[in-house]
Structures are given as C-alpha cells and as structure tokens.
Design brief:
Number of domains: 1
Structural class: mainly alpha
Strand content: under 5%
Distance between the termini: 7 Å
Helix content: over 70%
Number of strands: 0
Number of helices: 2
Oligomer: single chain
Largest sheet: none
Length: 144
C-alpha cells in the first residue's frame, strides 16, 4: 500500500519534534553544567580565600600568645614554646581540613558538570534516534 503525502508529513513532523526535543534537553543540560562549573570555580576561589584568612588568623593567635607570655615576663622556652607549637599544630590541622573539604566539594561539582555534559550529548543523540524510530513508526502506521 502506498504512503501518501499526509503520511510523509506526519513522519517528518514526528521526527522533527523528537529531534527538537532532544536538542532542547541537551541545551538545558549544557547550561546546567556550565552553571555548575562556574559554581565550582567560585567555590575554589572562596576556599583559597578562606585558607589565606585562616593563615592570618593563625598568625594573629600565635602573636597574641607570644605577647601574653611577654607581658607576663615569661621566657619563650619550655612549656611556653610547647603551647605555641600545639596552637600552631591545631590551627594548621583546621586549615588543612577546611582546604580538603573545599577541594572535595569542587571535585564533586566538576564531576557532576562532566556528567551533565555527557547527558546533554546523550539527549541530543536520543532525540535523533528517537525521531528516526518515531518517523518509521508513523510511516508504518500509514502503510499498514
């Protein structure tokens, strides 16, 4: 049985709708990936600032401790030096833990952005293959 012009038009419309839908979904996913990548950059920058700020805070805390020891007339030896070393150790640990949390967060965002870009590519391909299948199905329904 012959397929008329209406069948071809319906198949073409079905194909185009599927392709356009896949492209729209792909663009949306790419935009989400781009926004997430920007957020990762901002988070990384904020992490660097926080680490710098923590170093300043550490210097200030140690400086205040040294000043307190000096005002009390204590020499920087023995227990005083041990206390200073412990303060530095604790503050350094806090700083590095914060930096590691920041790095993990940034890595997670970048992996998610990469996954979104892959999903965008799959959405576009899916739209094309779905359109082909839909068009063939439409033609088959007009033929049968």
């Amino acid at each position: 049985m012959a397929i008329g012009g209406l069948g071809y038009a319906a198949a073409g419309t079905s194909f185009a709708t599927s392709v356009l839908s896949g492209n729209a979904e792909g663009k949306s996913l790419k935009a989400q990936a781009k926004a997430l990548e920007r957020k990762a950059v901002d988070t990384e920058t904020l992490g660097k600032y926080e680490k710098w700020r923590h170093v300043l805070m550490q210097r200030q805390a140690v400086g205040e401790q040294v000043a307190t020891y000096g005002s009390l007339g204590l020499a920087l030896e023995g227990t005083a030096v041990e206390n200073l070393a412990e303060t530095v150790k604790e503050l350094t640990y806090e700083r590095e833990m914060g930096a590691e949390v920041n790095r993990a967060e940034v890595r997670g965002m970048r992996v998610a952005a990469k996954d979104l870009r892959k999903a965008a590519s799959r959405a576009k391909s899916g739209g094309i293959f779905g359109g082909i299948a839909s068009g063939i199905g439409t033609l088959a329904s007009f033929a049968g």
